[in-house]
Write a structure and sequence with these properties.
The complex is a heterodimer. By secondary structure, chain A is α+β, with helices and mostly antiparallel strands. Chain A is built from twelve helices and 23 strands. In chain A, the strands form four sheets. In chain A, strands 5, 6, 7, 13, 14, 15, 16, 17 and 18 form a nine-stranded mixed β-sheet that branches. In chain A, strands 1, 2, 9, 10, 11, 12, 19 and 20 form an eight-stranded mixed β-sheet that branches. In chain B, 55% of the residues are buried. Classes of the chains: A alpha+beta, B alpha/beta. At the A-B interface, strand 18, helix 9, helix 12 and strand 23 of A face strand 7, strand 8, helix 3, helix 4 and strand 12 of B.
Chain lengths: 483, 421
Amino acid sequence: MSEVYDVAVVGAGVVGCLIARALSRYQLKILLLDKEADVCCGASKANTAIVHAGYDPKPGTQKAILNVGGNAMYDQLCTELGVHFLRCGTYVVAFSDDDVQTLDDLLKRGQRNGVPGLRIISREEMIRAEPHINPEVRAALYTPSGGIVDPFGLTIAAAENAVANGVEVRLETEVTGLLRHEGRVKGVVAGTQSFRSHFVVNAAGVYADEIMRMAGLDGFTIRPRRGEYFVFDREMSPVRSVLFPCPTPVSKGIVVTTTTHGNTMVGPNAQDIESKEDTRVTAEGLDEVLHGAQRLVPSLDPRAVIRVFAGLRAVGSTGDFLIEAAREAPGLINVAGIESPGLSAAPAIAERVVEILREEGLALYPKSDYNPIRVPPPDFSELSHRERAALIATDPRYGRIVCRCETVTEGEIVAAIHGLVPARNYDAIKRRTRCGSGRCQGGFDTPRVLEILARELGCPATKVTLNGPGSELVVRGTKEVDH
Amino acid sequence: MTTDVAVVGSGPAGLAAATAAAEREVSVLIIEREIELGGILQQCIHNGFGVEIFAQDLTGPEYAQRYIERARQAGVQALLDSMVLDVLPDRRIYVTNPRDGIVEVHPKAIVLAMGCRERTRGALAIPGTRPAGVYTAGTAQRLVNIEGYMPGRRFVILGSGDIGMIMARRLTFEGAVVERVLENMPYLNGLSRNYVQCIRDYNIPLEFCRTVAEVRGRKRVEAVVSVAVDEQRRPIPGTEEVIPCDTLLLSVGLIPENELSRRMGIHMDPATGGPIVDERMGTSLRGVFAAGNVVHVYDLVDWVTRAGEVAGRSAAEHVLGLDRASGKRIRTVAGKNVRLVVPQVFGLDALLEQGVQLQLRVRQPIEEKTRLTVTAETKELFRKTLRYVRPGEMIQIEMEPRVGRWLENTDSVVVDIAKAD
């Protein structure tokens, strides 16, 4: 007889990981599953990294309530988890009379949603705040509570803290069906394995509708909407906050934002697509993004681009987040259609899910030894020389720089590989340490990381992957032959 | 740690600079991030090195070894497996390594010899997916030649830079198939000899005016879509070709590695991507010199070595207090069809004493008789006829002391290259 979990959370994105962590406060047996080889592999790894203030969503919607609520939770959450979060403020920039009218509408909507501190600022004040802004700016809506976060850092930290508090994580485990008994959902099937649980939380991102269909629920569908991005070299990064154009009905528009590591990032455009795996970037899309971004910051120089990428938003058919216990499939809690502002809302979504589970009859007894604090591993680049010397004295591997652009040491990489949610491939290390995310994009570090991964995982180099099976970095030794 | 001269990097420029300085009886410390000296030469196991300096055809490691031995004989010290974290404008250097933790070095002179890095897929914004199997040619070279791993089986190489062409041959030797080398310009970006010896001799198809329109594949590269480009380098719709392969190598240009120089506040030249230097390889910071690919990207190692010798000698002279009095300075200006000129500035005294050498690159190739001129105001100081000029091949000229008298009333000279009439 296999063990029975209290809750199985499907999907280890930022929402799933924060739900698992929120549940880990209680005396529960929790399983967190993901089909990918690491946590943070879907929408959570490819987004604008903005913690929105909450003036965008229509008042009264789940999006509005959870966005404003989630935003307010960020300071404490990121302090507990040791995650980079910066309330740098966000600006919606107006260039025309219509835009100025839009600012007014957004201000009123934001006030109804309960966003604190909103105000419309003059052209001069905007230019003072961001000197590189298009000088044609007329006015802007300034939101002091808006900010940016490291979305990888947050997701991984939440997962690690959940594990520290007893949550079990299974990766490369794709849910292919649900266990059901007398109409009730009793667990999940993943290929040849099955995991019994009293409740299943469906936080499967763009695939959440497919999990719902496994439960016989087909009223809700998710359409992926792709967004493309550019990342600029940190040394040629002109902005220090978040700049939005005036929004359109489908999108908040192409944003120019700083990141928690000081790179300027621009994007996304919005393209509805068919495939839930289609994260291609296109020449047309990139043109659109650059053009849109240069409307806000004309001096953005495409020669300073170090990376392009695309991510998918999980656009639900109701236009709002769907967060509820499924009436027709008791035991299943759906957390679906978590498009923007999903990252901002995620901490509040997690609390909402805990409440729903309580309402559904899950007994929540607080754990006496729950520890909300996660101490982040050392970040060499942020230490003083004195602290660096002390760290190297404890472990010489912190004295060897593997990624020169981002100053990432072998010690940090080894720590990531042996972390509570182990980094078992190149991208997993990159998300945890920034190794390879600088201007040389892995040109220097890749052979070294390959060697370190093979050594620490005890596998041949030919088994080391970029992001899971099928993405091996090298195919054979030079003295071997292909069969 | 104390030393008179610190050299950052131990590639050909760093080794030559360290040796030249040490031969002038000053103490020299090389700081190298690898566990051995030699820099990128160690992974360049092909031949073609040293033809100018030794009149011999050496491999990269052989060439490096000769200078490693010279450096050792001259008494150069080395800090290996050590990365420079910071250099302050007052020349204090912070280095980290696993043995010593953080080391502070405060030399009297510094030679920056960090070399260059490769342009990446991100810098080109190549459309498509982002699977495993996209590498720069140099990363692939390290994997194959140092680590002993094949990064793939079927390759497409974008760019006809020297490393790309050399890797086309190298991978062929190792049993891989190189489906194509694609070059988006109508001419070669590397040396003609590499085209002959690495591409033509192995029947590897090289196509001009084509680039990569898209990378395909989810986990690993499955194909590359190639496309023809027009004169503005824009893709021409309808010319796409899907090339099945598992690896894309990029050989699309090198960028001098000047993060440290920039942080020190050294004045940079946007045309070269390196520091502005004078004829002694001195930068805008007193006592800080630079040499090799960190200044501008060379095509022959022999010239890198020579630049390193100049920088090392100058650094030693600075330590010994033998710096030449700073006389009148003359700027060199890249004129017609000239992309860059190094040094960007030289002393009139230096020209009058011993002449000055200029190195330059053209913007566009001219495959017929070409005239190179150096003029000051309206006076032609130098003229040379060349059989052809190519962007991939650096041009070097010597200005003789006697032309110095024409420079007393001017502060710049202009270099032009144009078709000879």
